[in-house]
Design the sequence.
């Protein structure tokens, strides 16, 4: 019987290793991990990074969440917004437009007709201005929901903001569909000039809840 | 954990280890049609290319230095990244099997491809099984390497590139010239013309503002994203521990392709595996800061098999060898497999900056391409294999080594490949010339006579004072270098002259006035 491609490739890998020295490697992990920063410093660093990525930031205690979200949506003239199934309904009580709750049956072109989307988030990284969305969490929803509409209003609890990448990665659930967002969609493909917005949302508004 | 260093003794071992084959000759895009010096000479004549590239590489170099300088532990991250990659290569068999197991457990299907031809066939078959005759593409070096788009076309399947730069290159019928920004050789006027000519229904009043050009691409691809049933991607990382795959990007075209279609096919080189999910903490810091000089790229997607109700419900992972095991078998050259395709080495390379990517003839240009390409595809497909010129496409200045986030010692690899090439290719004109020079230098009288004769060369060099072409057998040397004309007088004849003698006397007198000025205390 002739060998399958799988057997052949694995045999080649083993042969290659047998033919060349490959001393055992100890991985040095002396880089920064396990950092913590006081709330004010994390907030300041995260905000600075988000703004640098041309995201807009709105900060307030949790009893202001609904008002901040409504203000942002109104500012963009959003009439119809989508939300994931598990989003706290209290967050949209101040918004007077139409709210559509997502479901896997809604086809992508229907999402394209939304003016925006409001979601929660799982984890963030202050040092890089990155928000991690967990597609398996009911308050963040499937990946298409935060991708197709042109405006994404993302709510971040300050307690979920970590100082650096290692601290943030440690809080992820690996087998969930994960999307890391650092600012709005961008390209530098034309003469290396940064342009916001190609295929993903062209506007990212971040609402940070300072007491949550 | 102990690891066997000899041949493995399990059931899959069938006799003595054999050197794995390179990527098959004449397939894919790992070889140009002309040797580097010849192709480079033409590219050097393209002033616009040099202007574009000069500006782009300068900008990105500056950004990268800012972004890496911001992290006090940058060097420690590089050390960790290099070690994780070397450890990965050591454990590749078990990690690949683990990755396969995990992807399968989560509802994906894993395919193995010995080379690009086989990978192309697998992808074409999978696309046909869906009944679709078109696919969306996420920018991917692996699929570029194997020439997937061309193969799909021959099978009646249309592939649409969705990354803005790849789209520009595809619409123009062009080749990518940079790993990260493949259309960097084009300026905005050209891009506008390409769009006006190639995008159906584009606004004829389209101007050259980059934001407007990007918007035109957005409008063009939007409908495709909403209706496509199949997408093909590469992968930046494949995590053995969890079966998680990851794509790092900026525009959102990747997210579109990875989530909206029903079927997703990912082609991944076997070297892209990482042992643990936590290893991403290192590479998510190294990659964006090295490649675009950003703290983080705008979007990173991670997925594991299929997720009911979210994203493609049919996921296929194609694991590609195509010469990677041949590189792995080379004690020195295997280090090139650690490359994470950030392109930092391109942007610091004085040779790349002047010639651009096309001169290298491979989808992997620049310093890493000059070592990776011969490793994957070999240097001796024919007597005049263009790949044999790649290890010489470098000044060995070492800037690429300094820039590499996983510390690949590219200059040493280039020297090793030059050595291998010389060993295999036997006697060359250059080697003969060096031998003749050595013989002359061993005999002082002959050397003096040769120097006198060389003075005549000045007359032949003309007013520029350089030779750009020497006659055979020296043409091998002059193909890629200008040769200065010999001085009017050799040092020996100058020293013997009245002027030389006077200068030496003056220098001796100067030394006598300042005895031991530079000598250390107490000497």
Sequence:
């Amino acid at each position: 019987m002739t060998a399958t491609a799988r057997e052949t490739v694995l045999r080649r890998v083993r042969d290659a290793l047998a033919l060349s020295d490959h001393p055992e490697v100890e991985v040095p992990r002396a880089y920064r991990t396990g950092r913590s920063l006081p709330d004010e410093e994390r907030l300041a660093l995260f905000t600075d990074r988000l703004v640098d990525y041309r995201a807009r930031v709105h900060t307030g205690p949790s009893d202001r969440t609904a008002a901040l979200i409504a203000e942002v949506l109104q500012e963009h003239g959003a009439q119809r917004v989508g939300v994931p199934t598990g989003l706290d309904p209290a967050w949209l009580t101040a918004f007077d437009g139409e709210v559509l709750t997502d479901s896997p049956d809604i086809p992508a072109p229907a999402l394209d007709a939304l003016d925006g989307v409001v979601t929660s988030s799982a984890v963030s990284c202050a040092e890089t201005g990155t928000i991690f969305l967990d597609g398996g969490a009911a308050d963040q929803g499937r990946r298409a929901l935060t991708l197709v509409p042109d405006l994404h209003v993302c709510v971040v609890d300050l307690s979920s903001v970590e100082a650096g990448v290692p601290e943030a990665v440690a809080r992820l659930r690996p087998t969930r569909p994960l999307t890391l967002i650092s600012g709005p969609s961008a390209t530098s493909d034309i003469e290396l000039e940064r342009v916001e917005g190609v295929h993903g949302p062209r506007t990212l508004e971040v609402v940070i809840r300072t007491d949550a | 954990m102990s690891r066997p260093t000899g041949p493995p003794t399990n059931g899959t071992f069938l006799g003595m280890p054999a050197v794995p084959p390179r990527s098959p000759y004449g397939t894919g895009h790992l070889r140009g049609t002309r040797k580097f010096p010849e192709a480079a000479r033409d590219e050097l004549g393209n002033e616009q290319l040099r202007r574009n590239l000069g500006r782009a590489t300068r900008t990105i170099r500056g950004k990268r230095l800012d972004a890496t300088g911001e992290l006090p532990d940058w060097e420690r991250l590089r050390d960790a990244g290099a070690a994780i990659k070397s450890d990965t290569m050591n454990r590749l068999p078990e990690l690949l099997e683990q990755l396969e197991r995990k992807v399968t457990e989560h509802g994906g299907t894993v395919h193995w491809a010995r080379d690009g031809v086989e990978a192309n066939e697998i992808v074409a078959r999978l696309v046909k099984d869906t009944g679709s005759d078109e696919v969306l593409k996420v920018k991917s070096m692996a699929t570029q390497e194997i020439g997937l788009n061309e193969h799909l076309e021959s099978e009646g399947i249309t592939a649409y590139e969705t990354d803005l730069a790849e789209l520009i290159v595809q619409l123009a019928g062009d080749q990518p010239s940079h790993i990260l920004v493949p259309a960097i050789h084009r300026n905005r006027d050209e891009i506008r013309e390409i769009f006006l000519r190639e995008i159906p229904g584009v606004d004829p009043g389209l101007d050259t503002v980059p934001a407007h050009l990007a918007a035109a691409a957005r409008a063009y691809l939007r409908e495709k994203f909403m209706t496509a049933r199949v997408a093909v991607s590469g992968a930046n990382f494949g995590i053995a521990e969890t079966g998680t795959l990851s794509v790092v990007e900026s525009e959102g075209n990747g997210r579109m392709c990875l989530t909206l279609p029903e079927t997703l096919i990912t082609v991944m080189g076997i070297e892209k595996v990482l042992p643990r999910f936590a290893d991403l903490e290192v590479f998510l810091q190294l990659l964006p800061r090295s490649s675009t000089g950003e703290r983080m790229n705008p979007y990173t997607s991670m997925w594991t098999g299929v997720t009911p109700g979210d994203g493609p419900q049919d996921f296929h992972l194609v694991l590609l060898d195509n010469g990677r095991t041949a590189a792995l078998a080379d004690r020195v050259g295997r280090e090139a497999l650690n490359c994470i395709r950030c392109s930092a080495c391109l942007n610091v390379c004085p040779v790349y900056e002047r010639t651009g990517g096309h001169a290298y003839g491979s989808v992997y240009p620049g310093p890493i391409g000059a070592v990776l390409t011969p490793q994957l595809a070999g240097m001796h497909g024919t007597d005049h294999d263009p790949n044999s010129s790649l290890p010489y496409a470098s000044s060995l200045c070492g800037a690429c080594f300094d820039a590499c986030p996983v510390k690949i010692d590219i200059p040493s690899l280039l020297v090793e490949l030059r050595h291998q090439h010389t060993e295999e290719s036997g006697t060359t004109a250059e080697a003969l010339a060096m031998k003749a020079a050595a013989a002359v230098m061993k005999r002082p009288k002959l050397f003096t006579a040769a120097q006198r004769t060389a003075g005549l060369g000045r007359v032949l060099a003309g007013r520029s004072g350089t030779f750009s072409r020497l006659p055979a057998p020296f043409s091998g040397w002059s193909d890629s270098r200008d040769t200065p004309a010999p001085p009017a007088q050799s040092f020996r004849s100058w020293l013997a002259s009245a002027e030389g003698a006077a200068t030496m006397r003056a220098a001796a007198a100067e030394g006598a006035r300042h005895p031991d000025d530079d000598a250390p205390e107490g000497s």
In short: Residues 68 and 74 of chain B are 6 Å apart (CA to CA). Chain B is about 50% helix and 10% strand.
